[in-house]
Amino acid sequence: MLQVEGLTLYDRNHCILLSNACFRLPNYGFVSIYGDHEELPHLLAQSLAGVYSPNASRFIYNDQEMTLFDEKERSIYRSCFASFLFHDFQIIPDQTVYDNITMFENFPRYVIQKELAFFQMEDKVTTLAEDLTPFEQWKMVLVRCMLRCPMMLVVDSESTPLAKEELMQLYSLLDMLKSRVLVVVIGDKQSIAYANRIIEIADGYILSDTHTNSHSFPQVNQIQQPYTLKQAQIEAFDEKLYHFIHWKLRLATVFLMLSFIALSVGLFSLNLDVTDIQMRLMENKQSSILAVEKLANLNGEYVDNYYDYLNENDVVALQKALGKKLILGYYPTDLKAARYSVYGSSQLYVTDILDEYTMIEADSAQELGFAKMYGSYPQAYDEIALPSTSAYRILKEVLNEPFYNTQEQCERMLGMKVLWFGQPLTITAIFPAYEADNANMELQMHSYGSSLNQAKLMSGSFFVKRGFAKKQEVLTMPAYQKTGKRLIYGDRIVAEFEGLRQGKVGMRYFDGEYHYTSSELEEDEILIDYDAALSMGFRASYLSCVKDQAIDVDQAIRLFEEFAESWVGKEITLQTYRVPLAPQATQTMNRVVRIKGIMLPRSFSYEDYERYYKKEGIGAIYASKEMLAAGITQNHYIKVAFFQSHEKKELKHALDYLNSHEGYDAFLTNDRILKFFVVDLHEVAIFLLILGGLAFLAFLYLYIFLLKSASSYIHKDCTIHYLLGETKSALRSLVIKYFQMVLWIRSLFSWLCAALTLMLFVFTIYFALYASITIMWSLTIPCILLFVGVLLVRIVMHIVFQRTTVLDEMLIDEERL
């Protein structure tokens, strides 16, 4: 029995739909209630079903009272008394009939079989709900209701999408139950045909109530505790959520992990004191010298890892800024031209090993930072000092004597004369390598990154008095500036070459028809030497014929002439550039020229090829004086530049300046750890922070999307549990708890990845670069990010769930009064 006292309902505009209504409903039967207002059926049905808080004095059911109409009272009411049929009857299409009716709650098998038999559904237990007919689906929902032994079934027929004929089928089903339960149909006059009691409402009042008093009201077993989800139901609920979101959740986790890692590394790198780490590294290595590099300017911007050559203006500017002279290393711009000017032939491959060494100018060993040497530092321009590794090469290649780096051997070499471009130079000092006092020699810039130069102090260099370069004719003779050079035909790079020289009268070449001795070249004409021809493709055809001496010299000449005929007279692009990695952005010349001829070698014999051309460079191009005028300089360039000081203040000032200047860079060691883990990361710290922020926003967007889509996905399940008696707050908490658990698991995983990544950075820098102990505090960064990130997501989750319902959209919010 249900007794309603003082029931009052309002519409959206707070107009009265039902005023102070009082009525009693029997334990069994079929009751039809209808009214004259379109909103009345929904509100009345939801009030009688216990999903809406009406203005009423009290509901009395099964000798229990509901007076507060709060969430707990209505939960008990739904648990022990009322079931609600509305909208699409809350069918879960992708679950079987068994799962739909039990909702993973444990019922005795015989009870389930009894209800299925009553509705003739025994053979549909394992069928998916979506495969049932509409009539079978209604029976399935009624089985679900009757398993919970409700006292009353409330049907909101106006909210269902059923047609008239379908409603009549539903009423016939409900009519079968009126002897077991009270059926209340609201809003449809058609149900009168099955009703044994009819209540009509008009203008806010009960206009008529036709019923019989023949019904008795036997005592009914009471359920005192509200319906609550069992552990098996919660596990099924969580598993369903997991299968719905796990792939999207993995993508969100990737963004969260990327965010934590990028933000952790970015914050860590941003707070790194690069200069302090560099100073500690130099102090540990007992080094006081660093190399200075010039970054390439590409299209108006300096680009990391793209390097250009220093010029005299750079040296002046750097010495003014650093307050001390730089130590400069020079090298011939055109090595072959320098050799030709001395030896009379460009075909000589090796004259002396010093020809290919970098010549470094300094006034004393102290200026270089070398504390130990044998002999005395050069004081004249015909004297040189060598590192012991260079002395080793001289002894091995020239004197054919092993070198053991002993004092006796070093002192024996003092006074020995060696040739440098044919000029005899006296060895006056040797610096022993691998000595702690000469730790500066360990600065070896080779095979690293994209640096143009090889700054070697331990080998490949010799030391002379300042001003040496200006006294040497081979270094002051005219030569084309230091650039990369190549020929381009169409869109194909034909050859790269090392020399670009002014053509001279008397050079022998072939013009495609005749052998000539060259006259003056026109401005747009070039001659290609034999080495360049080999690089352009002639080498392969030549070797295929002569390496086994299969043809004689005359046949080799004809082969050469055929090759030359294919190129002579063609227009080709001559391009020079300063930076090998960015030739297009650093062009110094780009002009179309005509190939006048290809120069002849000294001989076409295979013996001469083996002796000269096999080891020769990649050739040279000869052009007119007018074409080369803009690029002609002295035949040397600054290959390396060093700054050396024993004063920590001066070193720190130099490092601060070079680290902060966009056009210059400091090189301390060939160690990639310093370059990558400190210098490069510090420069991209802002980018990492932006990347981390964007990744976190992407995670937040995906997480919010998952919250909303998951809430929508499981709203049928939640609505069913709600109608069975569970509270909305409990269902909302269940969803929130699941996502909080997911958040913690994913956040901890991302935190662990970020922490391990940062530990790699921190400990690598600390142990390999001798950083200060304060760097260990950086390990707290992931913990801070974890706390802040989880807090932000929790706040967002709270806001989202405040605006998101986990129930069917047809249910009026419980908070509405």
Can you give keywords for this protein?
817 residues, alpha+beta, 9-stranded mixed β-sheet, 7-stranded mixed β-sheet, 40% helix, elongated
Largest sheet: 9 strands, mixed
Total strands: the figure is 32
What overall geometry do the principal axes of the alpha carbons give?
A: elongated
Strand content: 15-25%
What kind of assembly state do the chains in view correspond to? single chain
| Residues in helices, as a percent range | 40-55%
- Return the structural class: alpha+beta
How confident overall, as mean pLDDT? 85
Put simply, the count of helices is 24
Stretches where pLDDT is under 50 for at least 5 consecutive residues are 213-224, 346-351
Round the Cα radius of gyration to an integer and report it.
47 Å
Distance between the termini: 26 Å
